[in-house]
Design brief:
Layout lengths: L2 E7 L15 H19 L4 E7 L3 E8 L2 H9 L9 H16 L5 E7 L18 E9 L6 H10 L4 E5 L8 H11 L3 E7 L2 E8 L3 H4 L11 E9 H4 L6 E7 L6 H13 L1 E6 L5 E9 L2 E8 L5 E2 L3 E2 L39 H16 L5 H6 L1
Parallel strand pairs: 1-2, 1-4, 4-5, 5-6, 7-9
Antiparallel strand pairs: 2-3, 7-8, 8-10, 9-11, 10-13, 11-12, 12-13, 14-15
Helix pairs in contact: 1-2, 1-5
Length: about 375
């Protein structure tokens, strides 16, 4: 699933007309973002999208959602405010992404603005990271555009920068959004191999966006090879760099994918995939609403699963001289683990806990008369 944040400028400068049927820059941006959302809804309905606006402050208009109707409605209700503070918009958007998704979740951040940030707006480029790929679509007068800052932002995050001159060349940003989709919202097409069996597959989002973060030497291969299997309970949901939906590319040659999906689901297993010499991944089946889907999860290079070890050094059970059951048990006893020599940590329901606290508060307000009752609680 691709995660996208749209950061829309709603400063007063967007009220300027574009000499097209009495429309303003704000109207043009709204129509173009609507076009972008419609493309995603038609092609990638499972994507999660969030809408933020920025001026001198930044507001989360719509949190991450698949409800494109809600996004479109909120888009048309946006009001203009004051000046353009791009630094505040970026800081808030990055903090929102990290607080919601974590610091290692790949996200597309699309900034839609006009020529330049307001005077005195100082942007710290150190807050930017390739894990949040930032694309900037700007419009207006080239003589007033701050090309340097926009290119610095997009370059530091492996993103893109597109400038649309108005009104001389265009009355819409649709071509810029179309190019953005064609470059960043495409499927990977390749082969999945298992012994003598192969199947054409597609992955979405494209894993190359994750690979590009690790350096120019990492190129996602055209063939993925299944090298083994492990029970799901052995993995216990280790952290991954990215997750991708795996689908058969050719309906007439989907036998391997169908077989793999049924076997992984029924046996509760995960398939270990060799990607490069030092990069591994796993394929597992996920069921939702009476349907099951194959999910491909990608690990970073030289990844070491704490309770398994280096995945690239796994070998068949028959070739192991000494069998150690997985997952490996920690030498440290967790306080929440049940043990004969440790008490069981009690648990209670939220409403019961709330009732207890309310009773304690009542006793506190009635001190000193209720001191004995308070101490007994």
């Amino acid at each position: 699933v691709m995660l996208t944040v749209i950061l829309l400028d709603n400063s007063l400068s967007l009220a300027r007309p574009i000499a097209y049927r009495g429309k303003s820059r704000k109207n043009m941006m709204q129509r173009s973002i609507l076009h972008f959302l419609q493309q995603l809804e038609n092609q990638k309905p499972i994507d999660l999208v969030s809408l933020l606006t920025f001026s001198s402050t930044c507001e989360i208009v719509v949190p991450f959602t698949r409800d494109f109707t809600q996004l479109k409605t909120a888009l048309w209700e946006i009001a203009l405010k004051d000046k353009t503070c791009l630094s505040i918009g970026l800081k808030t958007a990055i903090s929102y992404i990290q607080d919601t998704l974590g610091s290692d979740t790949f996200t597309q951040l699309i900034v839609v603005t006009d020529e330049r940030p307001s005077g005195g707006d100082h942007l710290d480029l150190q807050i930017l990271s390739p894990i949040i790929q930032t694309h900037i679509i700007a419009c207006g007068n080239p003589s007033e555009c701050n090309f340097e800052i926009f290119r610095s932002i997009s370059g530091k995050t492996n993103g893109s920068f597109q400038f649309v001159e108005i009104p001389q060349t265009s009355q819409t940003l649709n071509p810029a959004f179309d190019q953005l989709i064609n470059l960043n919202y495409i499927n990977y097409a390749g082969l999945l191999g298992f012994g003598n069996l192969t199947s054409e597959i597609s992955l979405y989002p494209h894993p190359s966006t994750t690979f590009s973060q690790w350096g120019p030497d990492y190129i996602f291969p055209s063939t993925l090879s299944i090298v083994g299997f492990l029970p799901n309970k052995k993995f216990s949901s280790p952290p991954t760099s990215s997750k991708h939906i795996l689908l058969p590319e050719n309906p007439s040659n989907q036998h391997l994918c169908l077989m793999l999906n049924e076997c992984l689901k029924s046996e509760r297993m995960s398939a270990i995939v060799q990607i490069t010499k030092d990069v591994m991944g796993i394929i597992h089946s996920v069921s939702e609403k009476d349907r099951s889907t194959l999910i491909f999860s990608l690990f970073p290079p030289h990844y070491h699963v704490q309770w398994i070890g280096n995945l690239s050094k796994l070998s068949p059970v028959s070739s192991s001289e000494s069998l150690i059951p997985l997952p490996l048990k920690s030498l440290h006893q967790r306080s929440y683990n049940r043990s004969d020599d440790l008490p069981i940590v009690p648990s209670t329901q939220a409403d019961v806990l709330q009732s207890d606290f309310q009773r304690i508060l009542r006793y506190t307000r009635s001190l000193p008369q209720k001191q004995t009752a308070l101490f007994s609680e």
